Amino acid sequence: MKIIAVIVLVLGIGLSALGAGFLFSSDSEVCQSYNRAAEEKLREADAARGTPREAELINEARMEVDSAERACRNAKRTQQSAMLAGPGGLAAIIVAVLLLVMSGKRRHAKV
Contact 88/15 with Cβ under 8 angstroms? Predict the structure, then answer.
């Protein structure tokens, strides 16, 4: 039982560390930078309205918007993973501590 408790404890610590890594990732910053770039391209396309370069700038702006959407979806997914891994790791640590306490009580009861 102690071996299982130790394994669950190690898994809990690993999950918690993974959740913390996800939580402090730079994905939201990447999302914001892509959004700024997309806004800039849209402004350039708007300023070039009626010129031969307008179609090219609109196409570039669409590509930037697509990149921003992908980056923001990835940031949201990373944040959701952090919200699952963190509490999951904490729950595993609590279970491991309970298993260790129960195995200690069972050993004292046998004596």
Answer: yes
